[in-house]
Specification:
Blueprint: H1 5-13, E1 18-23, E2 29-31, E3 36-37, E4 49-53, E5 59-66, E6 72-79, H2 80-131, H3 146-243, H4 252-282, E7 291-294, H5 295-313, E8 316-319, E9 327-330, H6 332-348, E10 355-363, E11 366-373, H7 407-417, E12 421-427, E13 431-439, E14 452-453
Parallel strand pairs: 8-10
Antiparallel strand pairs: 1-2, 1-6, 2-3, 4-5, 5-6, 7-9, 8-14, 10-11, 11-13, 12-13
Helix pairs in contact: 2-3, 3-4, 4-7, 5-6, 6-7
């Protein structure tokens, strides 16, 4: 204890606190002046923070705490009057300030009301006079504030309304003279309508001719594709005979050239097959059936086809665990063809080391199959165009990727034939997600769910 402790505590807190010490086992108290005093209350029966009446009848509030490493307890107390004095003073000040602000507000409100209401009442009377046709009524302006601006605007409006009313009377007279001219115009319009009808008939005939030309084009493409497949198949057969060495041994350069021949033959055959498929779809020769299709069967047929392409590009391929258990309405062969097209397209536009993922979601009786890649992405203005025939994101003669731009067009038409939709969501530089949405089958196949990663 030290005589200066009370002054230090008051300097720190701004309050007249009293500090005492006593043994934890009880006994006399010692004040901050190091003088022994009788206990003012029983510390052992009180919590750490307390309100208590002392032995001399004072209402006190305080805290107590054990001094670490000693058998002593420190007790800090103050009277309730001392603690509440600042709050009471603050409340009184708030009441006085509030009363002053209220009085000022009432006076200001009355002044503003008189300054604003009277001009507005006058403007209202003038407006009612104008509504009765008294366009000569004007408002006297005595102020330069916003009310004055409104009055000036009102006077200008009244003047313009008067002129407009006079002009309207003149227009009415002119409209009566125009009625006869309009009748003559109606006669001319009827003649023009007959001409337009004849033009529409001619347009329908031209459209029918265009449809016949389109059908002829489709038939020509189908015949050309069919005729080209025969020599391409022969090229593949002869190339295989040469590769087997039936015609004699080949050196390394010849084998390399033969490999290029086979690669280009396969690419050309793929293009011809795409053209033939698109032609058949547009001509209505391809109709997909709608049967329950277990995605597990589709994935089993899909992986052997895309695995070499994925390995060649060193891409990670993952199928989410819940995909295998889904069952959709469609045709297994056509759905496999669509997924192969989407994955092949993702492989072409994904840099080595990237990833391709297949996942599914279901909602409201529909199942969505998502094919997501980490490729170059598609600009927003081209995301719908990529489903048109012969359109590619990487287009032009200097493009890096091979392909005719038919895969996505064929895939969308096949999905629509199965009663579904095919859409894309993409961001340049972050990849693309192609979504096939089909109807769910009435029941799901109960098969173990597994995730596959290549």
């Amino acid at each position: 204890a030290a005589p200066t402790l009370d002054q230090q505590i008051k300097a720190l807190t701004g309050r007249n606190f009293s500090l005492y010490f006593t043994a934890a086992s009880g006994g006399p108290w010692i004040g901050s002046a190091a003088a022994a005093i009788p206990p003012r209350f029983d510390v052992r029966e009180l919590p750490d923070s307390f309100e208590v009446t002392s032995t001399d009848g004072q209402a006190l509030v305080g805290v107590q705490g054990r001094i670490r490493g000693t058998p002593w307890i420190a007790i800090l107390t103050a009277t309730e009057t001392e603690v509440g004095s600042a709050s009471t003073m603050f409340l009184r000040r708030l009441v006085v300030i509030g009363a002053m602000l209220l009085a000022v507000g009432v006076v200001a409100a009355r002044w503003v009301s008189r300054r604003v209401t009277r001009p507005l009442q006058s403007l209202g009377a003038a407006a009612r006079a104008i509504s009765r046709g008294q366009f000569e009524r004007r408002e006297v302006v005595r102020s330069t504030d916003e009310i004055g601006d409104v009055a000036h605007a009102f006077n200008r409006m009244a003047e313009r309304l008067g002129r407009s009313y006079q002009q309207l009377q003149m227009r009415i007279q002119e409209s009566e003279s125009l009625t006869l001219a309009l009748r003559q115009r109606n006669t001319e319009l009827e003649l023009a309508q007959r001409v337009a009808t004849e033009a529409r008939i001619a347009s329908d005939a031209a459209r029918a001719e265009a449809q016949r030309a389109s059908l002829a084009k489709s038939e020509f493409l189908a015949m050309m594709s069919h005729e080209l497949r025969t020599p391409l198949s022969a090229i593949a057969g002869y190339a295989e005979i040469l590769q087997l060495g039936i015609r004699g041994p080949l050196n390394d350069a010849q084998r390399s050239d033969l490999s290029r021949i086979q690669s280009n033959q396969a690419h050309l055959l793929h293009i011809i097959n795409d053209i033939l498929d698109l032609t058949q779809i547009e001509s209505g020769q391809v109709a997909a059936v709608r049967n329950p299709v277990a995605l597990r069967e589709v994935l089993a047929a899909l992986e052997p086809i895309v695995a070499p392409l994925l390995a060649e590009r060193a891409l990670q391929f993952q199928i989410d665990a819940d995909v295998a258990g889904r069952v959709v309405m469609g045709e297994a062969e056509r759905l496999t063809q669509v997924l192969v097209n989407l994955i092949a397209n993702a492989i072409r536009f994904t840099e080595p080391g990237g990833s391709i993922t297949i996942g599914t979601t279901s909602f409201d009786g529909r199942t969505s199959i998502h094919v997501t890649d980490s490729g170059i992405g598609i600009p927003p203005e081209q995301q719908e165009q990529v489903f048109q025939p012969f359109v590619q994101v990487d287009s032009g003669p200097a493009r890096r990727m091979q392909g005719t731009g038919l895969g996505l067009a064929i895939s969308r038409r096949l999905v629509e034939a199965m009663g579904g939709t095919l859409s894309v969501a993409s961001e340049v530089g972050l990849g693309s997600t192609f979504t096939i949405e089909l109807a769910c089958a009435s029941a799901r196949v109960r098969l173990p769910s597994t995730a596959t990663t290549t």
